[in-house]
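Entry type: protein chain
Record version: 2
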Amino acid sequence: MPRDVLILSANAPEFAHFVEAGADVAPDLRVRTLDGGAVTEVVDRRGHAVLSVQVPELVENPSELARLAPWSTVAVPVWWTEAWAPWGAAGDVGVEIARGFAAATGAQVLVEDGS
């Protein structure tokens, strides 16, 4: 079971920012899409996913945001991006990519391990 990673951003995330964050972490990573583009994965040289990112959804209801992400300080409307990273070293790379993306775009990130 992978780690859940939640990214909340005021602006629609551009996948190019995930690619840039990945290149900063490990330049040998690649990208592939699954399910007709519903999920984009950042993969290592062996094709193992280090981060899987679902298509972002716009949340406009402040009650829903407060219920699902009470820790967030981002105001609605907010782009809700769910991602997953495996446990262990490969997943640590994925989490680093998610955090790099968040830092570059002013987003907030919550990783299942509490960080």
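Comment: The mean pLDDT is 91.
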